Amino acid sequence: MRTSGFIVIFFTIIFFSSCNNQEYYKISGFTQGTTYHMTYAVQDSVNIQEEVDSILYDFDMSLSSYEPNSMLSKLNRNEINEVDNNFLKLYEAATEVNEASEGAFDITVMPLVNAWGFGPGMKTTIDQDLIDSILNLVGMNKISIEGNHLIKENPGTSIDVNAIAQGFSVDVIAEYFDELQMENYMIEIGGELITKGKNAKGIDWRVGIDRPEYGNIFPGADLKAIVSLSGKALATSGNYRKFYEDNGVKYSHSINPKTGYPVRHELLSATIITTNCMLADAYATACMVIGLEKSKTLIEKADGVEAYLIYGDEVGLYQVYSSKGFKKYIVKEVDDSGQQNFK
């Protein structure tokens, strides 16, 4: 079994129920600087931990910006320009969401991410001249694919796929589970997830949406809503966990690739449901960049994409915009007074 700093610090395999002559198991571990949890049902006992970890290791060595020997890191250092199939698939999805969001989602944002201290590089002292110079390197129109090679207009352009790769890794594991002919599973990596079939109780999978409150660092500890999913992917992006404070000002990790600055608006978190987790991840990020009203328009135009947007009103209370198609997934909501509403 192959390991890296991001893979397999610990794991558990737990049998916990049976349904329709299948045994349900859980595995968990670490990858991409976060945790993963997977539940799956099989008729015969099977240990898939090593293969899952191997797939995630290979994924890291392809698309991790924190792994210095990954393909992506070498692309960013201009040591290579040949890309693998993972990158080609990601580039296609990223281009789709970039166009749909009118440039709000952009994988060339890495120089800005580093400058603001949210990437593997060192935080820089920010002024407008620096932002202007960095913006010359940012934009999906500054890169292209020819065959299986990445072409950069400027060698200083570098790529950050953290807003889409985690969701993509969920899809990669789902593809492996499908190859094993699994009919019931939930795969979660860093809060992004995909579901299929039923859980051990024979019902659709139940998934919590966290209340986007600063200090709510433990997923699942304080929920705003619970949704019921089967055959769908879900991803959430928010600014309440990834931020830093400087001179009393909070700077979020969501950076507008057009202005070069971290966003500041009323939208606190965006949860997206669609058919695959890579697109859900990217659309959630795009919403956090463009804010509430533009997100509504984006989701209304996007085919098969539903959104649950939590935002703060003028008196500091949480409010929710739920797209028409999202409402059917909600089984419980908690209003701002703490009252639980069941559906």
So, CATH architecture of the domain at 61-152? Orthogonal Bundle
Beta-strand content bin: 25-35%
Radius of gyration: 20 Å
The CATH homologous superfamily of the domain at 61-152 is termed ApbE-like superfamily
CATH class of the domain at 61-152: Mainly Alpha
Spatial sequence of strands, sheet with the most strands: 1-2-3-6-7-10-13-14-15
The global form is globular
In percent, how helical is the residue content? Answer: 25-40%
Order of helices and strands: EEEHHHHHEEHEEEEEEEEHHEEEE
Number of helices: 8
What is the average of the pLDDT values?
A: 86
Structural class label? alpha+beta
Q: Could you give a short account of the major beta sheet?
A: 9 strands, antiparallel
| Low-pLDDT residue spans | 1-16, 243-251, 338-343
β-strand number: 17
CATH topology group of the domain at 61-152: T-fold
**Through-space gap between termini:** 45 Å
